[in-house]
Design goal:
By secondary structure, the chain is α+β, with helices and mostly antiparallel strands. The chain is built from 11 helices and 10 strands.
Length: about 300
């Protein structure tokens, strides 16, 4: 098993700053989640129990920890691009930490997000990390195949409607200047196209020329064009999750209800349609997507 990152025990001490010598007062188990699918983080689960009744009310457990780091998976699938990936990681980490800090005291009815306990971006590199409540054993994500069921899709659309309504209601309190959609800038779109283009070489007999044929989809000015179109149409500005892949929604294993939306690394201002279209275009079962491609 890999060694525990040096920063993790330090973060634990900060979270339990009101408890004397937390590693003696509590039983604390730190487990590296080696099966984590994160490309951008090293992930841990922390289990905390109290040794006595005196500080039992101070226990926060279980905890999910993300330490921003280019993972071995990322390095393997994208070799030679360390500098570019580190720059992306810096932006993603900063955005998620800002979101949790800004909305720590805000309740989003119908749109559950994990409780937040700690966050530092790579501006403070030695202490960079994010800690939220952990849902291991309670909630789980699904894969793109089979995708969302009809019931799950309806739940998601209802949750997004409530999230959007809340952000419209508190619009005057949101520091919108922090949430420009600059993560999808021209360089990022260019990277997405080049990475997708690699599939032509992986399976030339089926994909040769097909990615190049849809290069127009990777429009480097798409954010600016969409913002202008939304403004012309009078669309309300709301917060978009901006990365609602199937892996970023946890479902309660017993009830089948949404347990939590996670990974707010791309959160940005945008239109109400963006997250909805992402769910419909990427999250539905394959046969549904095929049948409705032209709709």
């Amino acid at each position: 098993m890999s060694e525990i990152a040096e920063v993790v025990p330090k973060i634990v001490e900060i979270i339990f700053a009101d408890v004397p010598e937390p590693f003696k007062t509590f039983n604390i188990t730190i487990k590296l989640l080696e099966n984590s699918r994160s490309f951008w983080s090293e992930c841990y689960q922390i289990i905390v129990t109290s040794n006595s009744d005196k500080y039992s009310d101070k226990v926060k457990s279980p905890l999910f920890v993300k330490i921003p780091k280019i993972s071995e998976v990322n390095a393997a699938v994208d070799p030679g691009n360390d500098e570019e990936n580190v720059a992306i990681l810096r932006s993603l980490t900063a955005r998620e930490v800002i979101f949790y800090h800004d909305f720590k005291g805000i309740h989003f009815p119908g749109f559950p997000i994990p409780r937040f306990f700690y966050g530092e971006s790579l501006e403070n590199e030695e202490m960079a990390g994010l800690v939220c409540e952990d849902f291991s054993g309670i909630g789980a994500s699904i894969d793109f195949v089979p995708g969302f069921s009809d019931n799950q899709t309806l739940q998601l659309l209802n949750a997004l409607a409530q999230f959007h309504a809340k952000t419209i209601k508190i619009s005057g309190e949101i520091p919108w200047e922090k949430y420009s959609n600059d993560l999808y800038d021209a360089a990022y779109i260019r990277m997405l196209y080049n990475d997708t283009l690699d599939f032509e070489n992986l399976c030339p007999e089926k994909l040769s020329g097909r990615i190049q044929a849809v290069k127009h989809v990777f429009d480097e000015d798409s954010v600016e064009k969409n913002d202008k179109l939304n403004e012309d149409l009078g669309m309300p500005v709301i917060l978009c999750h901006n990365d609602l892949n199937t892996s970023n929604i946890l479902w309660n294993k017993e009830t089948g209800k949404i347990q939590a939306f996670i990974d707010f690394q791309h959160v940005a201002k945008g239109a109400v349609t963006f997250d909805i279209l992402r769910i419909i275009s990427l999250g539905l079962p394959l046969d549904e997507r095929k049948k409705n491609t032209d709709r």
